[in-house]
Structures are given as C-alpha cells and as structure tokens.
Amino acid sequence: MTALVLDGKAVAAAVREEVAARVQELGFTPGLATVLVGDDPASHVYVRNKRRAAEQVGIRSFHHGLAPDTSQQDLEALIHQLNADPHVHGILLQLPLPTGLDAQAVTEQIDPRKDADGLHPANLGRLVLDRPGLRPCTPSGVLRILEHYGIAPAGKRAVIVGRSFLVGRPLALMMSARGVDATVTVAHSRTPDLAAVTAQADILVAAAGVPRLIGAGHVKPGAVVVDVGINRTEDGLVGDVDFDAVAEVASAITPVPGGVGPMTVAMLLANTLAAAERLGPG
Ligand code: NAD
Q: Please, what sign has the CA dihedral across residues 247, 252, 253, 255?
C-alpha cells in the first residue's frame, strides 16, 4: 500500500485564503505582535515566516526583537504594553525563551483575548471545559488537515505520542472533545512497549521530537499518520515518523516538511483574525 500524502501546504493555503477574505470584511486592519527574545536561529526563521504569512493575508505585524539578556520584568512590561495597544489583536511569544526567563510567567501576562498561540492558562482551561476560546495552533492544524481530507475522528481510536502542553496534551483534549469524539490514548517517554500502543491507532499522531521514532512496525495497516515532529539531523529536516517505511503501511500520512508545520502558521493567522473579530477596531 502506498499512502495518500496529506498536503499541509495546500490545506494551509486554503486556510490563509479564508482568513484573507475575512480580513477584508473586517473594516479595520488586524495586528499581530511577535515577540522574540535572543538569537536562536530556528526561532528567527519561524518568526520571519509567521510575520510574512500575516502580511500576506492583510494582518499587520509588529515585531519586537529583544536581546538575550532581557530581564523578566522588561519582557513582562512589553507584554503589558501590547495588551493595552488597540492596534494589536494577537500576541505571539516565540518559544523557547533563553534560560533564566520564565516562559509560563510571561505567557500568563498576555491578555487571554489576544493569546494568538492559545497557550494562556485561561484558554487551556476553556479547552478542558469544552468552552469556546483560542486554541493552540499546532493541535488545531492537525485537526484541520484531517477535516480537509474528510478524515473524521469520531468513533476512531487515536493515539498521540507526546504529552507536552504545546502539542500532545491539548490535542488529546481536542480530539476527545464532544463533536470530535475520538477515543484517545496519550503515549509518552515512559510508555512501555510503544509499538503495541501505537499499533492500535486508527489515527496516529507523533509529537515526540525523536527522529524517525515511528516505523512501519508501530503502525496498523490502513491507519492515518500525522507527523508533528520537526528534527534537525545530518540528513536535514526529518519528522518523528520514518516516512518511506510508514507510507507503505498507512492509508494517509503527512510529510515533513510540508505537513503540520505550515498548518501551525495558518492557524496562528486564524486565531489572530478571531481575536480581532472579537476585540473590534479598539
Ligand atoms: P516536547 O519535548 O515538549 O515533548 C515531547 C513529548 O514526547 C514528551 O511528552 C515526551 O514524553 C514524549 N517523548 C519523547 N521521547 C519519546 C519516546 N521515545 N517515546 C514516546 N514518547 C516520547 O516537544 P513538543 O514541543 O511537544 O514538540 C514535539 C515535536 O513537535 C518536536 O519535534 C517539535 O519540534 C515539533 N513541533 C512541531 C510543530 C509544527 O508546527 N509542526 C509545532 C510544535 C512542535
């Protein structure tokens, strides 16, 4: 069997078009503030891509690049300033922060209505409660790509490898939410016999950050496999899934790059738009 490749780039382009059309109808220009502390090269690339994507759909981006030795106090003061700025509807704090800074404490200073990443405890709490709120971008992107291809999680057994607050845990909540209705298992680094667990999945999501962790032996024939992993190796950028081997077993699979990555950026724009629609012109 050779799996259908789920084209995250194409789905992300469709989401961005929808966002661009709704931005036109807003009657004002939404703004996304990006905050980047330090000089991590990967983070610089991510932020540049997000800003470019925002501008392309008509969202103005306000960039704040801060020195690696920025204090917690100064960073939080910037967040307060952005909270109060009526031109800013979404705030993106690029993670990870340099050591010495408390990312959780900074995130908690973001106005939850402007929390474009959906990682503020108030928004994560709303997710637990099944109430509307801004949702984390990567898990939203995973669900959106499945929806685009008509892969309904309802009634399916989903296994998510990874329990981070950024991806695995919120995705588990979103996939088990009423209306999505998957039966979800979360596997992690302490899960014994990972392959025995993942082989039960109709939908398998890998978000562990371990290059090619998931091989053909981890996958039930005909399963849908979503690879969230982005790992820099000597062979270049690879996911958590051994793509070539798993594509022979799965019915559908996302590639790396060109899978979940572009979806994450698209959902950030969708969150910024949703925040702007709610907040209004200020
Ligand atoms: P993390 O390091 O915070 O969490 C990794 C999780 O995987 C942990 O819960 C850990 O228990 C689990 N894990 C680690 N090794 C394992 C193993 N051998 N077996 C089973 N579980 C294991 O990482 P994260 O922030 O959740 O990111 C995960 C991956 O997704 C990374 O490669 C990251 O770069 C990538 N990522 C991609 C996007 C995107 O847009 N595509 C967004 C965020 C993160």
A: positive
